[in-house]
Amino acid sequence: MSRIPSWLIKVVGLALVYFVVLALIKNGVVDSYLEITIVTICVNIILAASLNLITGFTGQFSLGHAGFMALGAYTTGIITVSHPTIWGFMTGLLAGACLAALVGFVIGLPTLRLSGDYLAIATLGLAEIIRIVITNLKITKGAAGLSGIPRFVDWTWLFIITAGSVALIANLLRSVPGRDLIAVREDEIAASSVGVNALTAKTTAFVVGAFFGGLAGGLYASYFFVLKPDIFNFLKSVNILIIVVLGGLGSLTGTVIGAVLLGVVSYLLRSYPAVQDLQWVIYGLILVIVMVFRPQGLVGDRELTMAAVRRLVPGRLKKGAPT
Question: Per the structure, how many domains does the chain have?
Fold first, then answer.
């Protein structure tokens, strides 16, 4: 008896998640706060997966992801306000992601010659420059913020773009350029000695990561319909990095788990306003506990594969197995 194809299991699992959440939303089980939490989790999954591509899989310490998110958010917001149609939204989403990727390429090419703390400082400076420029532009309404952005994002858009983003990043990592990224992380000198262009690999990771960071920003802008420069400050980049480290550097599965875990923690704190003010303290405490007892993160660098699922499910998911 042959096993059920792994791709079919993935499709069925994703479809089950989509329709269950959709049914809960349609029947009013998901209240407004829980819906906001779901949106935040999806946006954070895209942000953390794209940052993990740079930091976890390529080994480049970046603190500038909030800047790419800001570029995508404001580009999507400005275009959607000018053209409040679904096509305007889609154009803004793509334009914002492409602008973030372009800035990532222009800035990343010279800065990626740095490494370690120097690269972190350079990318942090990049994010702050982007935020300050946005604050002083008339088209972005400056510090007052951009408001009145039409909302086109719903659960269907969120699910498709989130699942699609993670799938595309996973497929990139399985390709030859993806293997080059991992080789650079493991040993840049050894990778260069066997023909891997380390600068090209690092730039590719930076550009692709910036693209998906801008895409996440566009989703954020369309759902929350109000943007202010302070949203995309240093703490936003740190928040994304916490998810990556919590789940596990070099693991997309860990990224999803980390984003969901912090989203659930935030949701549970909603009933305790006094405690919610200490959200960053609680996040820091969770991170410290993980670093003490599980320094590689919750998942480490492993992925949840179909082989692991088959070991957990009776009958090993074979065709014709009794249910």
Answer: 1
